[in-house]
Design brief:
With 119 residues, the protein is an all-alpha fold. The chain has a single domain (5-118), classed as Substrate Binding Domain Of Dnak, Chain:A, Domain 2 (Up-down Bundle), CATH 1.20.1270. Helix content is 85%, strand content 0%. It is built from 4 helices and no strands. It has helices spanning 5-33, 40-61, 67-88, 91-118. Helix 1 (5-33) runs antiparallel to helix 2 (40-61) and helix 2 runs antiparallel to helix 3. The protein is elongated, with a radius of gyration of 14 Å.
Length: 119
């Protein structure tokens, strides 16, 4: 399932970091700033990202056999959230986008690992 225990730990940490950065950014930056920061689509993406990152970390932590499905969704949502944050701009939003992109990379790697192992 996992090629390397250290790789798994890094992926879990990337998911938790993304979740925490997105949550902090949403509640302590976006809600305070208003305007584009609180547009419905952006807030929903950030909320989705927070939830899926926690779920992906949980699935990997318990070594669920279904983690690849969650990690695939996590990568897709994190990429979309990163794009939304980058469009809004500003240092805090770019910090959030960076965390999202790192998590997406780890989750894409997890998804790819499971597909190559199944082949």
């Amino acid at each position: 399932m996992y090629h390397d225990n250290e790789q798994r730990k890094e992926s879990i940490q990337a998911c938790w970091n993304c979740r925490n950065v997105c949550q902090d950014t949403l509640f302590n930056i976006c809600l305070d700033m208003g305007g584009r920061h609180v547009e419905e689509r952006h807030v929903k993406l950030m909320t989705d990202c927070i939830a899926i990152c926690q779920m992906a970390a949980d699935f990997m932590t318990r070594r669920s056999s279904m983690y690849d499905a969650i990690c695939s969704a996590c990568a897709k949502i994190c990429k979309a959230c990163a794009e939304s944050c980058e469009l809004i701009g500003g240092a805090e939003m770019l910090r959030c986008a960076e965390a999202c992109r790192l998590c997406a990379q780890h989750c894409s790697d997890k998804h790819m690992d499971s597909k190559s192992a199944a082949a």
